[in-house]
Amino acid sequence: MNPKVDEYLSRAKQWREETEQLRRILLDCSLTEELKWGKPCYAFEGANVIVIQGFKAYCALLFFKGFMLKDPHGILVKTGVNTRVGRQIRFTDIREIVKMESVLKTYIQQAIAVEKSGLNVDPPKSAEPKMPEELQKRLREDAAFKKAFKALTPGRQRGYSFYISGAKQSKTRESRIEKCRPQILKGKGFNE
Question: For residue 127, how far is the Cα from the chain centroid?
């Protein structure tokens, strides 16, 4: 048990019981516990395998390589429409976790086996976002912005393109570009 996770749990206002139950199950599967990204994270031989996440409507186990797991119970969920690799199992009540403990352990052991195998299969391809015209225009007009955007990793560029193109109105897309510009100039991704 990691003292940083103990501290995290002592401050938790939501999903505390559920997180404690998930923690117990994960530690019972011989995973190493750390606190990463402000969340309890579980690793096998230094490789991140699972993180416990809390959201407004549910808490979840996120399997970092979840797309590689078999899902006979149909409980793995993509975290978003553009998610390629990670998969979650979501809970809204501690009773669900208790009831599913043996199934969860099977999925956890499967995730550990994926790490042990060293498999690194390419994730399924998702549709690349079409770069919005407003972003293309801004890149043509602003040399510093263009240089900073092109220096971003492809994943960061994709993240900004998804976010900006998600707006229905041109005015909103332009506003989103302005909002993101400082982050892009700093070389940061959308959620950093």
Answer: 18
- Give pLDDT, residue 124: 58
CA angle 179, 182, 183 (to 5 degrees): 95
Range 3-117 classified under CATH 3.60.10.10: no
For the chain, report the end-to-end CA distance as a whole number of angstroms: 28
Supply 61's token pair. Answer: 């186990």
The answer, yes or no, to whether residue 128 has pLDDT greater than 70, is no
Tens-digit pLDDT profile for residues 88-113: 999 999 999 999 999 999 999 999 99
Q: SS3 for 156? A: helix
Spatial separation of the C-alpha atoms in residues 131 and 150, rounded to whole Å: 13
CB 71 within 8 A of CB 57: no
Q: Which residues make Cβ contacts (< 8 Å) with residue 42, sequence separation at least 6?
A: 26, 27, 31, 32, 33, 34, 48, 49, 50, 51, 52
